Amino acid sequence: MKIALDAMGGDFGPRVNVEGALLAARQEGMCVVLVGDQKKIQKELHKTRFSSQSIDVVHAPETIEMHERATESLRSKKNTSMRVALELLKNNEVDAVVSAGHTGAFMASALMVLKRLPGIERPAIAGCIPTLKGSCVMLDLGANVECRVSHLVQFAVMGALYSKIVEKKTHPVVGLLSNGEEESKGTDLLRQANQILKTKELNYMGFIESKELLKGKADVVVCDGFIGNIFLKTAEGLVSAIFSMMKQEFQKRFFTKLAAGFFYFIFKDTLYSFGRRLDYAEYGSAPLLGLNGVVQVCHGRSSSRAIKNALVTAQKSVESHFLEKLREELEKMGIE
Amino acid sequence: MKIALDAMGGDFGPRVNVEGALLAARQEGMCVVLVGDQKKIQKELHKTRFSSQSIDVVHAPETIEMHERATESLRSKKNTSMRVALELLKNNEVDAVVSAGHTGAFMASALMVLKRLPGIERPAIAGCIPTLKGSCVMLDLGANVECRVSHLVQFAVMGALYSKIVEKKTHPVVGLLSNGEEESKGTDLLRQANQILKTKELNYMGFIESKELLKGKADVVVCDGFIGNIFLKTAEGLVSAIFSMMKQEFQKRFFTKLAAGFFYFIFKDTLYSFGRRLDYAEYGSAPLLGLNGVVQVCHGRSSSRAIKNALVTAQKSVESHFLEKLREELEKMGIE
């Protein structure tokens, strides 16, 4: 098994990606194909003085910068690191692709190269959100800023299958994120999706509010990528704000810095484990569901550890034959 | 000065509203007009054995239930407590109205009875959100589930004026909530609003992400009521989830319950002050901006203390002549 890694993706460029690949090779015995500017990758590899047959390099001369518009960069750049990595997957030279690069561009490239699963119009980023009862799958977390009714319905079906196949939940409860539980709530689009979802073979609970989501009332929560992004960044920002605030507060309350430090340490340790799980980047990565291929996206500021985790997750996904099962289930449900 | 209170509004009915009015009368020397089912109100008043000239009762036979659709209930019910209270305001028999009832119905009634300020198409709920640097005004927090470009632009103008007049900030920084700071982010509608806002006489910073909002990077943050609701409920739900989690965690970590209790007490006290400020209901209330009248909305599950705070805030708003100043400023800006 080989996993291709977009070595140019992310805020920190090749350094973090190369380090992540080396961690995966050393600690997990994985085979990683680094795709990107060969010179830059080799330079990073030389620094580590690690020579291994488990790391390959495939040259791709172009990179998509974070500020570029996805559609424009796709038109003008044909040999980007993410595009070349996806071509390797399409040609069965690798088994999965991981990228911490521009999410929009990566999704558009993946759509173009790998094509969609039958019955799926748009792929979605499916994240694992911690709740008081464990976790839930939330999608879309940012791949599609604007969605149609049919997209939301397809996300619900894919999310439920992900929960079944990967998380082994037998009858996952599916909810549609809204501003209230009553049927009269939501936008026109959400109310339409709500009516259609009631007719599907899903354990569908109707609208769910974000605070109920955190209590663990659903196993799968569906929303468009804009709302998903607002949810994630609010949660992430709040955990970080509470950290800063508690630090100040403790220093006010306990007069010696030593005591403050101790309490902060205890507090930090506890909250951190929750906060980290909220940040799909730090925690690892999130699968892009709905494509003919196993693809994992990472946050732009992923650490080498997060890159390594993403590579491991991609490998596990391939090993579990999730994609084959998803395709089968979609066909059974007649959504093709 | 007299403030009308929708005595039937909120999840707990007349009891909490009557208690809130009595708190305002006793502690703040306020005059409150309780509007609603006279028998029920009198029953609650008798229970408290408090006789005061500062509490009036005005009968209104109908009530809008929380599950009703705003538009339908408005058509079928002409003598609801909120409607009668708003008529009192329109006829200058009271100076402001407070309601913890159905937000959508209250807004629709207020629009019908009081009418909009010149140049404003939709009123917005403006909440005070705690940040690491103090607070920011966020609007709309739920009055308008779907917004047009012009609505968002008007919210920005009203929010900036609120920040200037009420919060005494001289050059409030205004941001538009989006899924990233780059101009290419957001929905079509947000990108259009962004372009228009750049041309307005505002200290406009462009798009802002929710995590930056919490850091205090803007004084005014604009969004539609759906997103505002998701933001608030995510924040509220997360604070509550962290509470539960910390309680469990502390009990795991410190073996005696006594120690756990102590740490939880310290923690709770600190986080609670932040969490409470996030919940506009608990904290008091939020003004509905854009109407010809001072109107405060409270959350359905407001306590009597929250109702009292709302009454006090409404009184202060009247005293500060905010509405007259807002009308003047809107005219000056040529937004009429």
CATH class type of the largest domain in chain A: Alpha Beta
CATH architecture of the largest domain in chain A: 3-Layer(aba) Sandwich
Whole-number count of domains of chain A? 2
What is the percent of helical residues of chain A?
40-55%
At the third CATH level, what is the topology name of the largest domain in chain A?
Isopropylmalate Dehydrogenase
How large is the share of residues in beta strands of chain A?
15-25%
State the CATH superfamily name of the largest domain in chain A. Isopropylmalate Dehydrogenase
| Beta-strand segment tally of chain A | 11
How is this structure best described in words?
The structure is a homodimer of 336-residue chains. Chain A is α/β, with parallel strands linked by helices. The first copy, chain A, has two domains: 1-120 and 290-324, Isopropylmalate Dehydrogenase (3-Layer(aba) Sandwich); 124-283, Isopropylmalate Dehydrogenase (3-Layer(aba) Sandwich). Chain A has helices spanning 14-28, 38-48, 70-76, 81-90, 103-114, 149-165, 188-199, 210-215, 225-253, 257-278, 280-283, 304-319, 322-332; strands spanning 2-6, 31-36, 55-59, 96-99, 124-131, 134-139, 173-177, 203-208, 220-222, 286-289, 294-297. Chain A has an eleven-stranded mixed β-sheet with strand order 3-2-1-4-11-10-5-6-9-7-8, sandwiched between helices. The two termini of chain A are 29 Å apart. At the A-B interface, helix 8, helix 9 and helix 10 of A face helix 8, helix 9 and helix 10 of B.
